[in-house]
Every structure is written in C-alpha cells, then in structure tokens.
C-alpha cells in the first residue's frame, strides 16, 4: 500500500486535477464552438515554455509558466489579427497560428540542445504523469501530515492553485459567460463586454493548459477540453448541471484512466504499463461514445427506439422527437 | 460630440428652438450614422429622430442596412461616424433604457438553456456583475413569458421550440428588460400567423404604456396596418414620418428602385388610403 501512496497516488492526483481544470473550462469552449481553441492554446504554449526554459537556464517552473502565458496571449492576438486582416474564418486562423507556433517550439527545442534535458517532443505530447512521486508518503495518514504534503510534487501544488482559480472564475462569472456565449450582442447591449469575457476565458484556458501541459502533455489537454463537456452536454439541457457532470466525467477519466494504464496491461499478461495520460484521454473518449449511443434524450439508440415506437403507435408524438445536435 | 454638431446644424437650418427639443426629447435619436463593412459603405450619413410612444417600422430592400442601422446605432458593431442619443443622453449611458431583440438566427438554439433561462438573461444587467439569479428573477421571467403566452413552455430547451415560439421567448426577454425603447430585428421572420398576431398585440400594449418601438420589417403589405410611423432606408435615409405621409409610392420607388412592380405600389397605396 505504501507503494500506491508513493507512486500511484501522486500521478492519479496530478492527472485528475489536470483533467478537471481543462474539463471545466472546456464547457465554455464547446458551447462557443471554440473547441479548437483548447487545441490551439495547448500547442502555442510550447515555444513560450522552451524560451522560458532557456532564459531561466533550467527548469524554473515560473519562467516556463510566464513564457507560456506570453505566447498564449500573443497567439490569441495573432489569431484575431489573421482572422480580420486575412478575412478567413477563425478555425483557419487558429490552424495557421497553432501549427506554426508549435513547429517553432519544436525547432527551438531541437536546435538549442534542450532536447535531451527534461523537455522533449514525446514529453510535449504525452507529458510525464508517471514521474510524479511522493516518497514521503507512508499511507493515507500522510494526507493529513503537513510536512509530507509539502513534499508533494511541485506540479500538483501548481495545479491545485489553478483548480481553485478556475472554479472561482466559473462561479463568479457563470451568468456572464453563459450570456456572452449564447448571445454576444445582448451581452454587449447589457454592458457585459463579450470581448472582455472571451479574452478572460482564453486567458484562463491558457493558464489551465500551461499548468496541465507539463504533467500530462498536449494530447490529454486537448481531449479534456472537449470530451467531458461534450459528454455532459448529451445528458442535460441545463448548463449548470452540464458543468457539474463534466467535472464528474473528468475526475472519473483521470482515476480510471490511470488505473487502467498502470494495471490494465498486467491483466493481459503484459508487464509494460501504457501511457497514463494517453489512457485517460482514451477513457474520456469512451465515455463520450457511450453517451452518444445511450444518452436518454440525445443518444442515437434511445432516439431510434422512440422513433420506432412513435411509428408503430401510429400517433405523431406531441414532443418534437429529435433535435439536431 | 457629433450629436452636438448635428444639433447646431439643425438649428442653423431650421433656425428654431424646436429642433433642439425634438432630438433631446426623442427616445431614440441617431445622427450622421455611417457604417462600412470592408471599405464598402452600408449606411451613409443616416439621421433619424424617433417620436416617443410610437410603433415605428424600418422599411427597405434586402441589404439596405436596416439591421446594421439598429446594431450600429447601439454601438454593437463598429461605425465610422455617428452618434445616438436616448432622451438626449449618449446611448452607451442609457443602455438600461434600451432593449434590443436580435434576429432569431443570431444565436445558437442548441445551447443548454430553457425558455425561462433565456428570458432571465434580460434581467442580468439589473442584477449586475458576479451575482447569481434567484427565485425572484425566475418569477419575474415567468411573468414575461406569460405576457407572450409561453408559460407552458418555460422549462423546454429552446431548440425544441418552433420558430414562432423562439421569437416569443426573445420578446419576453425584451419585456423582462423593462426598457423605454425596444429595437427589434425582423421579429416576424419565419413565424406563424398566430405568433405574428400575438407579438403585434404585445407591441401595441407597450406603445399604449408610452414605450417606443422600432421594428425592422420586411412585409410591405402589413406596414400600414402595423406601424404609425415608418423609416425608409436604402443605404441612406429615404423618408420618415407618420406612415400616411412617408409610406408613399414615390418614397417606396426611391427606396426599392426598380425592384417593386408598379402594380404592387398601387396596391400598397390603396391599402394605405383605406387605413386613413
């Protein structure tokens, strides 16, 4: 059991927190049809992280975080400029910016010899979830021991702070974000600047992806910005409920994904474990699939079932039977 | 500043004090509004003073800039020049007196919100930043839904409502805003006859209570029946005033050019005469 607390628990905590912060903010990205923004941001932060790494001469988390923040804001502005000047749709503008900046990050990474150190391309994609260890842990009682808690991996502390920040952001601005996402013109006319709210959201997305990025890599960040929110959307028509459900799915994906990644292959006789971050993303995608198939109202199968029943009953349903998603 | 200039201009032209009172008392006064999309002018120097307590139709052909007029006048989209005043004060300081109803297709109806959720959005400004809405606001929103005959659909997801019902939800939201000026962008587009009738009834009640309503309107046949005043635009101000005076064949010809057959014009004119 000691091994669980020392090696598995910190990884689970890290993966789950990363999934949670991204999953919560993803609700707004998905509803604003900006799901790609999470993808874009998680890529564009790479050059910032590398430059921060180089300038600080080592793995200073703060410098990397600042670098990532600067490149995220730079990218948001650049996307907006390209969208307007180039007169292209925002998806295309994002595509141009994030591939270019990610590529630039990879080039800097390889050219400056940082590649061998702590940052490499694989790390950028899958993160380094398994490397989180908590050697001071002796068992569950360590959770209540301040000295032991202080020795938790640094990334967990950062993500915990970011989690609090994200939850506070959503609680404080839930109605404003909802309004600006649904009807930007009304938001503007009521004095809730949709531009400011959109920018605040992207800044939070940038902070969340930077905090999650080094632990879990960009694949999990992208998956978590989309899957939990999209899964929850299939199950409810209430936005507050959707956000709560997305948090549940994010946490479930984090815990189940890690356990399956670490111990799943063992069950099939393999001694190699698979990437936990990758497995968490797979579990999140699996939840999405299940919801798409079986969600009571929007799922494919219940909808088919209802249509069939309606037809065989011969009576047109009073409710409008299907809703285009 | 431009409003001030325009006021001076009006005074010089008319040389009377009346021009001053006219725009200062107007619930919605727009002066010198010019808007361009990608260097192509859409509206050119439009000035209009809406009379208080009237139901005003904004008429013009497709692409005449009717919707743009509303949005730009409210400062919701960028403009090159122009000022809007509400009772003599800059519109940005008077937004709580103005309710804007966008075109129905301006929003995503798949959004996870119910009818009453959307109506409650009209109360957000009153509640202010950071605060959550409670039971009282819900009751208020339900009252607005009742006024448009939508009580039964309060908890329906908005995508499951018909076009007419969605438009009524929008109207209820505007009612909840409890404004003095209502600006509506094509509220009758794609709605059923019953909804059209219900909406016009609600608008008439509002006018009786002294509210001013500007409606972007497409169907020329119903103009004389619905509106006491009209504003005809086609890129620029063509004509405005009481419907009987401004909604003439001559002005329509100017606004629509060759797009309106002369038989149509005659028909409209005779229906206008009947109304008189």
List the helices and strands and how they pair.
The complex is a heterodimer of chains A (325) and B (276).
Chain A: H1 2-31, H2 35-55, H3 61-85, H4 90-111, H5 121-126, H6 146-150, H7 154-182, H8 184-189, H9 194-235, H10 239-267, H11 276-294, H12 300-313
Chain B: H1 2-14, H2 18-25, E1 28-37, E2 40-50, E3 55-59, H3 66-73, E4 81-86, E5 89-90, E6 98-101, H4 115-121, H5 124-127, H6 135-147, H7 163-177, E7 181-185, H8 193-208, E8 212-216, H9 223-226, E9 229-234, E10 236-242, H10 243-246, H11 249-256, H12 262-275
Parallel strand pairs in B: 3-8, 3-9, 6-7, 7-8
Antiparallel strand pairs in B: 1-2, 1-4, 4-5, 9-10
Helix pairs in contact in B: 1-2, 4-6, 4-7, 6-7, 7-8
Task: Give a brief outline of the structure.
The complex is a heterodimer of chains A (325) and B (276). Chain A has 325 residues and is mostly helical.
Question: How would you explain this protein's 3D organization?
Answer:
Chain A is mostly helical and about 325 residues long. Chain A has a domain at about 1-215: ABC transporter involved in vitamin B12 uptake, BtuC (Orthogonal Bundle). Helix content of chain A is about 75%, strand content about 0%. In chain A, helix 1 (about 1-30) packs across helix 9 (about 195-235), helix 1 (about 1-30) packs across helix 10 (about 240-265) and helix 3 (about 60-85) packs across helix 9 (about 195-235). The longest helix of chain A is centred in the middle third of the chain and has 42 residues, at about 195-235. Chain A is globular and about 60 Å long. Residues about 315-325 of chain A have low confidence and may be disordered. Chain B has helices at about 1-15, 20-25, 65-75, 115-120, 125, 135-145, 165-175, 195-210, 225, 245, 250-255, 260-275; strands at about 30-35, 40-50, 55-60, 80-85, 90, 100, 180-185, 210-215, 230-235, 235-240. In chain B, the strands form 2 sheets. A 6-stranded mixed β-sheet of chain B has the order 6-7-8-3-9-10, with helices on both faces. A 4-stranded antiparallel β-sheet of chain B has the order 2-1-4-5. In chain B, helix 8 (about 195-210) links the parallel strand 7 and strand 8 (about 210-215). Chain B is globular, with a radius of gyration of 19 Å. The N and C termini of chain B lie far apart (about 40 Å). Chains A and B meet through helix 7 and helix 8 of A and helix 4 and helix 5 of B.
